[in-house]
Amino acid sequence: MISIKDVRKQYGEEVVLDRVNLEIKKNSVSTIIGGSGEGKSVLLRLMIGLEPPDSGEILIDGDNIVGMRESELNRIRRRFGVLFQDSALFDFLTVGENVAFPVREHLKLSEQEIQNIVQDKLAGVGLSGEEDKTPEQLSGGMRKRVALARALALDPDIVFFDEPTTGLDPVTSTVIFNLILKTHSERPVTYVLVSHDVQRALEFSQEVMMLYGGQIVAHGKPSEIRKDPDHPIQRFMEGTFGTS
Q: Distance (Å, rounded) from C-alpha 23 to C-alpha 4?
């Protein structure tokens, strides 16, 4: 489980996160929604340990990563997979080499074992036989699928997704979300997404939380949210949340 307690983050005079509290259940698919500039990606970076909060606690299965030594933090991060907003593939590596990168970094395996993992993960996202292509030869949707394969390469306990469908057309976005659900059903670990796409969040998530004004102001299961026309997340979808 991920537990965030009274987390605050400020850049200069701008308070981005103001005493954020939330819990993400183990092995769930949970999505944090909110408008542009609300701090969703900042919150994700704090959970991953890429930067520290100014105050508060971030517990990963009971371990508070705030103030943790880098060696200990790396031990925790070894359990993470991350799909970044821009896919963050290495353009100088092939598709196969991109997927193999975290495996080579963290595991001592034979070349054949590494290639078996690469082929398995690429097959899981529908990219068998694409190992020798370079990222520049791929469409945006294919790049996202390679990034997903890489995020899953180490069989992580927690996978973070930063706006996984940004820049994709609706059809390709559906393909990516379906792949996210497919991989979760095959290996149900904790998936944490941040997204501005509320409708898809309600379709694909088990729990949805809304970040607004630096705080989590609403949360619930999609079935509960849909039933309540006055639910803040419903009002956010309609563009009436935060208006008088």
A: 6
